[in-house]
Amino acid sequence: MAPDGDAIPDGRVEAPDGQVEVPHGRVEAPDDPVEFMAWATARGWGDGLPLIPPTPERVAQFTAAAGRPAGSVLLEVPPANAWCTVEKLAVNACMAGAAPEAMPLMMAALEAMAERPFDLFALNTTTSSVVPCLFVNGPARDRLDLPYQAGCFGGAAGAGPAIGRAIRLVMRNVGGQVAGETSKCVLGQPARVVGLVMGEWEERSPWPPLAERRGVGGNAVTVYGTIGTMDIADIAADDGRSLAWVIGQSLAYVGTNAYISHWGAEVMVVVPPPWADMLAAAFPSIEDVQEALWRNAGHQEDRFPETHREWLAERDRISPDGTAYIVEQPSDVIVMCAGGLGNLHAGGLHNFGPTRAITRPF
Questions:
Q1: pLDDT above 90: residue 10
Q2: Which of helix, strand or coil describes residue 50?
């Protein structure tokens, strides 16, 4: 860090309290929403959806809610390696339609994305469809109107899509992520526009909250890089052990990114309350649930073609009993309770290997 007030690269200045700040910049833009949409899209600022003009008055509401100076740097966003300040987040959050009250959550999420082993550079430039998703615990779930019951992956009205979109706009507009150019993503996914932001239904979970299990109590966000969501459906299982088999086998599809890389990937399972109750009745603790899911999330090596068996063997992916597990150990299976009471479905979210989940308070 530079001494108080000394200039450091890219025009940044360090404040006396050690907080790095960036001088503000301004551009003139139309205030009319239709004109602003065309103007911003022509400059590559948009994602194809309508944008709210970030007037100084609107942006000021966001920076006030942040509780930190507008020029405070949150993180350096690759691949452009540009500094994202509180104000830059505020501008993008305003355009996305998020509420100012969500600023602490979004700031914590972005700062978590800057930490290792959450590899933001790999996430922003890979051929994979990976996107950072936000999973929230604590009273803020209701205060911010985040979905965690029916339709929580998408479809439930609430603040989740706008918050996720704000994070995505930061990655585009600050980080310079451009599909087919700086990002080599082959197919993408809808969450590359609106993200995935949801809570855990803590009150209906038989286990401690996800963030608490990860060492953070109260209001907390877990940032997880996923290549997409998959539905796991079953109408036959009538006990937790058979259900764990269905979920585990479904997770271990051989085309997932975890099977084409070295150890290091995680996998997340979101189970609705009825299925969570079935699993809890069969397994005494959440660790036992993770163990059961992990043991079922693998395939015998002879199921793979010879080329793939060689690939797995070279990466030490085949266990002594001849099983190739999707992840290295039970703790790499992240389990959370959310969703409607309609039963019959769970959600799988497969991880992009170089990134691992990070949990932070806010």
A1: no
A2: coil
**Angle, CA of 231, 232 and 236, to the nearest 5°:** 145
- Work out the end-to-end distance of the chain between its first and last CA atoms, rounded to an integer number of angstroms: 25
Distance, CA of 211 to CA of 137 (rounded, Å): 6
Rounded distance, CA 341 to CA 104, Å?
31
- 178-187 confidence digits (pLDDT tens): 999 999 999 9
Both structure tokens of 5: 């007030």
In degrees rounded to 5, what are phi and psi of residue 227? -85, 0
The predicted pLDDT at position 102 comes to 98
In which element (H, E) is residue 287 found? helix 286-296
Report which of 211, 51, 89 is spatially closest to residue 139, judged by C-alpha positions: 211
- Beta strands 12-14 and 20-21 are antiparallel
CA distance 144 to 155: 17
* Structure-token pair, residue 126: 């890979």
Cβ atoms of 343 and 274 within 8 Å: the answer is: yes
Q: Report the run of H or E that residue 313 belongs to, with start and end.
A: helix 306-314
- Amino acid present at 146: L
H/E stretch holding 325 reads strand 323-325
**Contact indicator for 297, 248 with CB cutoff of 8 Å:** yes
Give me 137's structure tokens: 């615990």
Q: What is the mean pLDDT of the chain?
A: 92
What number is the average pLDDT over the span 247-275?
92
**Phi, psi angles (nearest 5°) of residue 196:** -140, 115
- Mean pLDDT within 296-302: 96
Contact status, residue 210 vs residue 200, Cβ threshold 8 Å: yes
For residue range 95-112, list pLDDT tens digits in order. Answer: 999 999 999 999 999 999
Instruction: Provide the pLDDT confidence category of residue 15 given band limits of 50, 70 and 90.
Output: very low
Residue 213: both structure tokens together: 């299990």
Q: Name the strand (E) or helix (H) holding 246.
A: helix 240-251
Kindly indicate the confidence band of residue 193, based on its pLDDT and cuts at 50, 70 and 90: very high
Q: How far is CA 184 from CA 77, 79, 161, 187, 191, in A?
A: 17, 12, 24, 9, 16
pTM of structure:
0.91
